[in-house]
Write a structure and sequence with these properties.
Low-confidence stretches of chain A: none
Shape of chain A: globular
Order of helices and strands of chain B: HHHHHHHHHHH
Largest interface: A-B, 56 and 58 residues
Mean pLDDT of chain B: 92
Distance between the termini of chain A: 35 Å
CATH topology of the largest domain in chain A: Rossmann fold
CATH superfamily of the largest domain in chain B: Alpha-helical ferredoxin
Strand order of the largest sheet of chain A: 2-1-3-4
Mean pLDDT of chain A: 94
Number of helices of chain A: 13
CATH architecture of the largest domain in chain B: Orthogonal Bundle
Radius of gyration of chain B: 19 Å
Helix content of chain A: 40-55%
Number of strands of chain A: 8
Distance between the termini of chain B: 30 Å
Number of helices of chain B: 11
Oligomer: heterodimer
Largest sheet of chain A: 4 strands, parallel
Number of domains of chain A: 2
Low-confidence stretches of chain B: none
Helix content of chain B: 55-70%
Chain lengths: 293, 192
């Protein structure tokens, strides 16, 4: 059995429970053990790097040090924002002498930077897909707009994605699941991220452009791999629709939930009932079409 | 301009501080404007990314002051679009982080940015106390700081029903270690 470190982050314990549920389900089928880091802490997110650059490295560094202590070489970080903070901390420690000496004193732990954070897309490509691709029985006969947002594709020194302005990693997974990925213009635009609470008006405007483009190109669902993108596009839908002439009802679904559906897992076990924007119509369409095929 | 009186004479230009402290050279920018074209928020900002860089390049205390008092530095989402498309590879989000902390240190924060900072502070306080983010605590603390008592009240019940909100925080075992990290990092920032 393959073992890999797992840093769920605060979102997957709360607002993004369906992401955790569906990811764990895939890991079980792929026979991969996700080893949760002992007593992990919050990565510090936007707040830390906006206010205190030392804290922005020290908080994620503690998690990296825990992974090293547990003998883990790789840590799956499903939240794109947490991934960015953990990967940046590792980058700073490896490239900057100042942090190499300062951080161990701050976190009171040794740290070499041997544990490598990876995104959910890397995890799927490197570990899971090979083991599950023969089990993708359900053909997902629908159109999908794959949305990457910022932190899976940028900054360049942290991103492992190819074609960063027009990535195709998720599209390939959708294609493998029998779905039809669409070509659209907003896949690497920003959703408004950390301004969700304080400037919901801005998030509404940015997300409206994203959803409007997906709708005009006939998408049945938007696929995401980040809890920040998900909560902005899903939970903020009322605010978003204020910027649109007609209400946009496209559901926003995690890539892991879609793979789960293709594997034939019950939508409830994948947390489809936890979205704010209803997914019934979308699920119904898939069912109807799988019967026809 | 009324800001004139608040400027310290012979202050070190920000561009020099930026070079010394975070090793970014603002003079590399040749004003192609690709950053502003790609920035999802240029339309909302008082100064767009390239304009902020231009003000910094001039190196005049008046221009530096204008940058530190701008709203644009607080709206930046750190989406990194500007940096990834910059032909001169100016790491503008890195510069923005520096400008934000400098703006706080010199007490030049734009009045409309106070809520954004209050949110960041509430967020960090939540981590400092428990080691992890506790949404209910974060929102309660943010509301108390800003008196936005009615904001997002419609979301909470729905989140709770869907099992997305925990009423009580989870305290990690290493919360004392986290509190010490905060203490040391804050002290260091003060001594800068």
């Amino acid at each position: 059995m393959t073992k890999i470190g797992y840093f769920p982050g605060c979102s997957l314990n709360g607002t993004a429970k369906e992401y955790d549920l569906s990811l764990q389900a895939i890991a079980r089928i792929a026979d991969i053990e996700l080893v949760e880091l002992d007593d992990w802490n919050c990565c510090g997110a936007t707040a830390a790097h906006s206010l205190n650059s030392t804290l922005a490295v020290a908080l994620p560094a503690r998690n990296l040090a825990i992974a090293e202590k547990m003998g883990l070489d790789e840590i799956l970080v499903p939240c794109a924002a947490c991934f960015s903070r953990l990967a940046q901390a590792r980058y700073e420690i490896k490239s900057d002498e100042k942090y190499r000496t300062k951080i161990p004193q701050l976190i009171e732990m040794e740290i070499k930077g041997t544990a490598n954070p990876i995104t959910v897309l890397d995890f799927l490509n490197k570990y899971a897909l090979d083991k599950i691709k023969d089990k993708l029985y359900n053909k997902l006969n629908a159109k999908f707009a794959c949305y990457y947002g910022c932190l899976l594709t940028r900054p360049e020194h942290l991103s492992t994605i190819e074609r960063r302005e027009d990535p195709l990693v998720m599209e390939k997974i959708i294609y493998l699941s029998g779905g039809m990925p669409i070509d659209w213009a907003f896949k690497v635009e920003c959703c408004g991220a950390g301004l969700s609470v304080v400037r919901t008006d801005i998030v509404g405007k940015l997300c409206a452009k994203i959803l409007d483009d997906a709708q005009s190109r006939g998408a049945d669902a938007i696929i995401v791999a980040c809890p920040m993108c998900h909560s902005n596009l899903d939970m903020r839908r009322n605010e978003i629709n204020k910027n649109l002439s007609t209400d946009n009802e496209i559901p926003v679904v995690y890539i892991t939930q879609i793979i789960g559906l293709a594997l034939g897992i019950d939508p409830k076990k994948l947390g489809f009932d936890k979205h704010f924007v209803p997914t019934d119509k979308f699920l119904h369409k898939l069912q109807k079409q799988t019967v026809e095929v | 301009m009324e800001t004139k009186s608040k400027i310290e004479p012979l202050a070190q230009p920000l561009k020099e501080k930026i070079l010394n402290e975070i090793n970014e050279l603002v003079m590399k920018c040749y004003q192609c404007g690709k950053c502003a074209a790609g920035c999802p928020l240029s339309g909302e900002m008082d100064y767009t990314p390239n304009q902020i860089l231009r003000l910094l390049q001039i190196g005049d205390p008046l221009c530096d002051d204008e940058v530190l008092r701008s709203m644009g530095i607080w709206l930046c989402l750190t989406c990194d679009t500007c940096h990834s498309r910059c032909p001169q590879e100016v790491d503008f989000p890195h510069i923005m982080d520096f400008l934000r902390s400098e703006s706080i240190k010199r007490r030049k924060v734009h009045p409309k940015a106070k809520e954004i900072i209050a949110f960041h502070r509430s967020f960090l306080e939540s981590i400092e106390k428990t080691g992890r983010l506790h949404e209910v605590g974060l929102i309660a603390s943010y509301k108390l700081k800003t008196f936005n008592l009615l904001q997002d009240v419609d979301l909470a019940p729905k989140m709770f029903v869907k099992g997305k909100l925990e009423i009580f925080p989870h305290r990690i075992k290493g919360k004392e270690a986290i509190a010490r990290i905060f203490e040391k990092a804050m002290k260091e920032a003060e001594n800068d």
